[in-house]
Design a protein that fits this description.
Helix content: over 70%
Distance between the termini: 19 Å
């Protein structure tokens, strides 16, 4: 893993966007293309967020060290969250900011999604080496907010549908496992 440059993670992280762009240009998005664009960007943000959270358990359980890729994964997750929010604001809301704000307040799934997005924004803006040095030991405590952002993001995903999609439930289970592996009693587990 040491030989893989961090730029490869960024390149791989751009693939879902390239596929979405290709599908959009080819007219392969389905009957509601705006919804498909929003949902695919949001799901990708969640997948990358879960990948970010998987770095520590992979190291503890299997001794697979992907720590140097964690920042890129987190920033990619936030990038897709930004694209998800922009797709909603531009394509769905037509940049009608007053209506968008009313919808965020009125619809709980949007309120929860915005809360997750704001947490990710805080984490992204404090992920530089300069911010780490400036915040000192508080940086680690601040970045533990990811443990709140991830469940909020999955709850937002589930609440966006009238019937909960099974894939979102599986992602919720994956998140529960990743968070459980951080519990003090399970930290010492190792797979030989």
């Amino acid at each position: 893993m040491r030989r893989i440059p961090v730029a490869a993670v960024w390149l791989a992280g751009a693939v879902p966007f390239a596929v979405l762009l290709w599908d959009t240009l080819q007219g392969q998005l389905g009957v509601d293309p705006i919804r498909d664009i929003e949902h695919r960007l949001g799901r990708t943000a969640v997948y990358l967020l879960l990948a970010t959270l998987a770095v520590t358990p992979l190291l503890r359980l299997f001794r697979v060290n992907l720590v140097r890729f964690r920042r890129a994964l987190g920033l990619l997750s936030f990038s897709y969250a930004v694209l998800h929010l922009l797709a909603w604001a531009v394509l769905d809301m037509g940049l009608l900011w007053g209506q968008a704000l009313r919808d965020i307040v009125k619809r709980p799934y949007l309120t929860i999604g915005m809360a997750a997005w704001l947490i990710l924004a805080i984490l992204a803006t404090t992920s530089s080496n300069r911010a780490i040095r400036a915040l000192g030991p508080r940086w680690k405590a601040l970045h533990r907010l990811v443990y709140l952002a991830a469940p909020l993001a999955i709850l937002h995903w589930l609440m966006a549908y009238k019937i909960w999609p099974s894939w979102a439930l599986w992602m919720g289970l994956a998140l529960a496992i990743l968070l459980a592996l951080r519990l003090p009693g399970l930290r010492k587990l190792r797979v030989r």
